[in-house]
Specification:
82 residues; mainly alpha; 434 Repressor (Amino-terminal Domain); 5 helices; globular; disordered N terminus
Length: 82
């Protein structure tokens, strides 16, 4: 193992984690499973799960796709991020 490398979960950016929490909350409120949301948005279900766990940053086009599909503003997905 390289110096400074950690085994197990990598440290995630707090902003990505907050986005993921918002995405999961809105998805479940709207009655979507990860798979059904992914199909509607046109992304893979594992990508949606990884976004919800704060493992991936989301591009602006994907942020807009998520927001439109969920019927919310992009700002709602970014709530709590300063």
């Amino acid at each position: 193992m390289a110096s400074g490398a950690r085994k197990g979960k990598a440290r995630r950016e707090p902003d990505l984690v907050k986005f993921g929490e918002n995405l999961r909350r809105l998805r479940t409120e709207k009655g979507y499973s990860q798979e059904s949301l992914a199909l509607e948005v046109g992304l893979h279900r594992t990508y949606v799960g990884a976004c919800e766990r704060g493992e991936y940053g989301v591009s602006l086009p994907n942020l807009i796709r998520f927001a439109r599909t969920l019927g919310v503003s992009p700002a709602e997905l970014l709530a709590g991020i300063r």
